[in-house]
Amino acid sequence: PPTPAVTESLIKGVITAVDSATVTIQGKHTVTAKIDGKTKIILTGKRATLADLKVTYMAQGEINLDEAWADIEASR
Description:
By secondary structure, the protein is mostly beta strands. Helices cover 0% and strands 50% of the residues. A seven-stranded mixed beta sheet has the order 3-2-1-6-7-4-5, with no helix packed on it. β4 and β5 (46-47) form a beta hairpin.
């Protein structure tokens, strides 16, 4: 299950895992959260999809109250 056991809702770091339902970003903490229908994904300034996110991309993600990513901004 997702484990956002961190107090911050904004996570900055490197994408270390992507699957069909979750994205993991490792920064000061490692956070895995789900992707839902409201998650907004931006890659280098343009709207993107989960399939566009790759391991090793730099990313900043914000977690919403449902413990899902509200948005992820990534760059190659």
